[in-house]
Design goal:
heterodimer; A: mainly alpha; 12 helices; 78% helix; 0% strand; B: alpha+beta; D-amino Acid Aminotransferase, Chain A, domain 1; Cathepsin D, subunit A, domain 1; 7-stranded antiparallel sheet
C-alpha cells in the first residue's frame, strides 16, 4: 500500500498502522456527528457517546457482536428502571446497581456465545465491552431528564450514527486515502467552524415546522 | 422551492436560537438568575412583581431533620430550586381530615411526612437539577385555578408563556395541563399549547404534544380557540418588566393567573422552546427581526409595540371605530337560563332570521322544561290561532310559566307558532338579554341561531 512519508515515519517509530488510521479517523467521525446534529438534526447522546460506540464497534470483532452488546445494555437499562422504581434509590447507587446487572448479563452473553461455539463473541476485548456498559449511565441520565420515550429514541439514534460511523471508518477507500493524504484531516477544523456558525434550519426542523410553512 | 426557502427564514430554529439570540443576549449572569428559582423569585419580589409566596426552604440534610412540618399550610407546592421542565414538583391540595401529617395530592393519593422527606432527599441530591449537582428544596404557596380555565384543564394550573425580546412581547402561548402531562403545563410532557393573538389576548390554534392540531379540549366539546385571557395587558407588562429586571435579552416568561393575586410570574426561562411557533402557526425569527431595531424606553411602549406589530390588527381597529365587536358566522356563546343555569354552545349567526331561536332540548336544559311541556300540552297549531287578536292569544297562554311571549315565525319550512323565553347570552364578552323562540332544531348542526334583533352590537365578518 502507498503511504505518505509522515505515516511511514510513524510506523518506523513503532506505532502500528491500524492505530494511526484509527486516530486519524477520530476527527472525521466527530465532524460527521457534528454535521448530523447541526444540519440534519439527529441528536443522539451528545458527541462522545456515538463516537466511543463507533470505536467500540470497530474494536469488537464485527458489527453484529457490537450491536448485540449495545442493545443488551440499553434494554437492561430500560428494564431496570421499572424494577428499581419502587425502591426510590438515590442516583449513584441506582446506576451502580444497573451497572452490576448489565455486567452480569454481558458475562452471560459471552458464556452463551461460547456454548454455541461463537468464539468471536468471547474474543471481544474487554475495553469495548466496558465502553458500552458505561453508556448505561448516559441512558439513565437522559431517562430522568427527558423521559423513557426520548431516551429510547436517542439510543436508537446513537446506534444508527455509530453504525454509519463504523462503515465510514472501515471503508477501504477512505483508509487508503488517509494513508496517502493524512493532512486532509486538518480540513475538519474549517468545516467545523462553518458548522459552528450555521444558523439555518435543520432538516428535522423543516419537518417539525412544516405546518407553519403552509400558513405563512 | 425558492419560495419555500424564503418562508423557512421566518422560522426560528435551534441553531439560530442558540447562536444568534441566547449566546449574545442571555449573558451568563442573567442565565444564572433564570436557572435559580429562589434568586429570580427574590429579585422579582423586591421589585414588586407578583410571584408565588415562598413558605420555607430546605438547604441540606440537617435542615431537613430539624424542619417543623406543622408550619406547612393545607396546600403548597414543593419544588427543586434548579429543576427544569417541571420535573420534581410536588403539589398538595389539602390535609387529610383529622390528621395533621398527611396531605392529599390532586389524584387523591396521600402524602405522608416520610414521602415528603424522601422527595426532598432526592431534590437535595440533585436528581432533578440540570447537571445533577446538589440542590435546594423549597415550599411555596399553591396558586389557585381561575374559574374560567377550570373546564379546560386536567388538575394542575395552566400558564401563559410569553417570549420577550428587546422589551417587546413577541409571541405568547397558553399551556394547559392534561391527563397525558399528569397535570403539568409542559409541552414536552404532553400538555396542550394554544396560540394567542397578541393584540387581544384571544386564543387561536391549539397543538397537543409535538405536532397534532386539535380543536377541542380533550374529552369535551369545548372549543380551545376564542378563549379571552383575562388581564391580558397586565400579563404582557409583567413579562416585559421581568425581562428588564432579569437582564435576559431573550426571555420566556411563564405567568399563571391566580384567583386572588391575578397574574403571577412562576418561572423565567433563558432557553425558551420553539414549539410556541407551531401553536401560533407563525415564525419567531420574523418577529425577532422586526423587534430588533426599535428603541423602547418604557414598559407600556414595549407592550403597545408588541400588540401593534404582532396582533391581528384590522379587527381591533374596526372595533375601535365602530364601537362594535367583530364576530364570525359561528361564535361560541354562553347561555344563562333560569336560576343562573349556564351552558356553553356554538351559535350560528343568522342575519336572515329576525328573532334568535334555540333548540327545545337546550331550552329544557336551561330550566324551561315546564314551559316547553305545558306549551306542547296545549297543542295549538298556526291555523287555529291566526285569526285571533293578540289579547285572545295571551288569554290562551297565560298559565304557562316563564313564557315571555309567543311569535309567528315564517321560515323556509312554512309558518310556525312558537313559545318565547328570556335568557341572557354572552357572546364575545358582551352580555345581552334576548327573547328567544323555542323550536326543535335537533336535526340541525347548531342548537341556537342568533337573529337580527340581538346583533345590534356586532359586525359580522364572514371570513372569520
Amino acid at each position: 500500500m502507498n503511504v505518505s512519508p509522515i505515516i511511514n515515519f510513524f510506523i518506523n517509530q513503532g506505532v502500528p498502522f491500524t492505530t494511526v488510521i484509527l486516530i486519524l479517523m477520530l476527527p472525521i467521525i466527530a465532524t460527521f456527528i457534528a454535521f448530523l446534529r447541526q444540519v440534519v438534526g439527529i441528536k443522539a447522546f451528545g458527541i462522545y457517546a456515538p463516537l466511543i460506540v463507533t470505536f467500540a464497534f470497530l474494536a469488537t470483532n464485527g458489527l453484529k457482536y457490537g450491536i448485540a452488546i449495545f442493545v443488551t445494555v440499553i434494554f437492561t437499562g430500560m428494564l431496570m428502571r421499572f424494577v428499581l422504581k419502587p425502591f426510590r434509590l438515590l442516583y449513584l447507587p441506582r446506576v451502580a446497581i444497573m451497572l452490576t446487572i448489565v455486567a452480569f448479563l454481558i458475562l452471560g452473553i459471552l458464556v452463551i456465545g461460547g456454548e454455541f461455539k461463537r468464539t468471536g463473541l468471547a474474543a471481544v476485548s474487554i475495553f469495548p465491552i466496558l465502553i458500552m456498559i458505561t453508556i448505561v449511565e448516559k441512558f439513565i441520565a437522559v431517562q430522568i431528564e427527558k423521559g423513557d420515550k426520548a431516551a429510547i429514541f436517542l439510543a436508537i439514534e446513537t446506534l444508527i450514527i455509530s453504525i454509519l460511523g463504523f462503515f465510514i471508518a472501515s471503508s477501504k477507500i477512505l483508509i487508503h486515502f488517509l494513508a496517502l493524504y493524512p493532512w486532509v484531516v486538518i480540513l475538519t477544523i474549517p468545516i467545523n467552524i462553518l458548522l459552528g456558525k450555521w444558523t439555518g434550519l435543520r432538516v428535522s426542523e423543516y419537518f417539525r415546522f412544516r405546518k407553519i410553512m403552509k400558513h405563512l | 422551492m425558492f419560495e419555500f426557502l424564503k418562508l423557512s427564514r421566518q422560522i426560528l430554529g435551534m441553531n439560530s436560537r442558540n447562536l444568534e439570540y441566547i449566546r449574545p443576549f442571555n449573558l451568563a449572569r442573567a442565565k444564572k438568575i433564570a436557572d435559580n428559582k429562589l434568586l429570580s423569585k427574590k429579585i422579582l419580589k423586591d421589585n414588586n412583581l407578583a410571584v408565588p409566596q415562598l413558605l420555607a426552604k430546605i438547604r441540606n440534610y440537617a435542615e431537613l431533620e430539624n424542619f417543623d412540618w406543622q408550619t406547612l399550610p393545607e396546600s403548597f407546592a414543593l419544588k427543586p430550586n434548579r429543576g427544569f421542565g417541571g420535573e420534581g414538583i410536588l403539589v398538595v391540595y389539602g390535609k387529610k381530615k383529622n390528621q395533621t401529617d398527611v396531605w392529599i395530592k390532586a389524584d387523591r393519593s396521600l402524602v405522608s411526612i416520610e414521602d415528603l422527606k424522601a422527595h426532598i432527599r432526592n431534590i437535595l441530591d440533585g436528581s432533578f437539577s440540570l447537571s445533577g449537582t446538589p440542590d435546594i428544596a423549597f415550599f411555596e404557596e399553591r396558586l389557585q385555578l381561575l374559574k374560567l380555565f377550570k373546564p379546560y384543564c386536567y388538575k394542575g394550573i395552566p400558564d401563559i408563556r410569553v417570549i420577550v425580546f428587546n422589551k417587546v412581547p413577541l409571541m405568547a402561548m397558553l399551556r394547559l395541563p392534561t391527563k397525558n402531562s399528569s397535570g403539568k403545563a409542559n409541552l414536552q410532557q404532553g400538555a396542550i399549547g394554544v396560540g394567542i393573538d397578541m393584540a387581544t389576548g384571544t386564543t387561536t390554534t391549539a397543538v397537543s404534544g409535538k405536532n397534532k392540531f386539535i380543536e377541542y379540549a380533550p374529552d369535551t366539546r369545548l372549543l380551545l380557540s376564542g378563549i379571552r385571557i383575562p388581564y391580558w395587558n397586565d400579563i404582557l407588562k409583567l413579562a416585559v418588566r421581568a425581562q428588564e429586571l432579569s437582564g435576559l435579552g431573550f426571555l420566556g416568561a411563564d405567568i399563571a393567573i391566580d384567583k386572588i393575586k391575578g397574574p403571577t410570574i412562576i418561572e423565567l426561562n433563558a432557553r425558551p422552546g420553539l414549539s410556541i411557533q407551531i401553536a401560533n402557526l407563525s415564525g419567531l425569527k420574523e418577529r425577532l427581526k422586526k423587534a430588533a431595531g426599535i428603541k423602547i424606553k418604557t414598559v407600556e411602549k414595549g407592550v403597545r409595540v408588541g400588540k401593534d406589530l404582532f396582533g391581528g390588527e384590522i379587527e381591533e381597529e374596526l372595533e375601535g371605530i365602530s364601537g362594535r365587536r367583530v364576530i364570525g358566522t359561528v361564535e361560541k356563546v354562553k347561555l344563562i337560563g333560569k336560576d343562573g343555569k349556564e351552558i356553553e354552545v356554538e351559535a350560528k349567526i343568522d342575519t336572515g332570521a329576525g328573532f334568535s331561536s334555540i333548540d327545545t332540548e337546550l331550552a329544557k336544559q336551561l330550566g324551561f322544561e315546564n314551559t316547553v311541556l305545558e306549551y306542547e300540552n296545549l297543542n295549538i297549531s298556526y291555523e287555529q290561532i291566526k285569526n285571533l287578536t293578540p289579547e285572545q292569544r295571551k288569554e290562551i297562554f297565560k298559565n304557562i310559566p316563564d313564557l315571555a311571549d309567543t311569535a309567528i315565525i315564517h321560515s323556509s319550512h312554512g309558518t310556525t307558532y312558537r313559545p318565547m323565553v328570556n335568557i341572557n347570552i354572552i357572546m364575545d364578552n358582551i352580555e345581552f338579554l334576548a327573547k328567544v323562540s323555542i323550536i326543535d332544531r335537533s336535526n340541525l348542526k347548531m342548537p341556537i341561531i342568533i337573529g337580527k334583533k340581538n346583533l345590534g352590537k356586532f359586525l359580522i365578518d364572514v371570513n372569520k
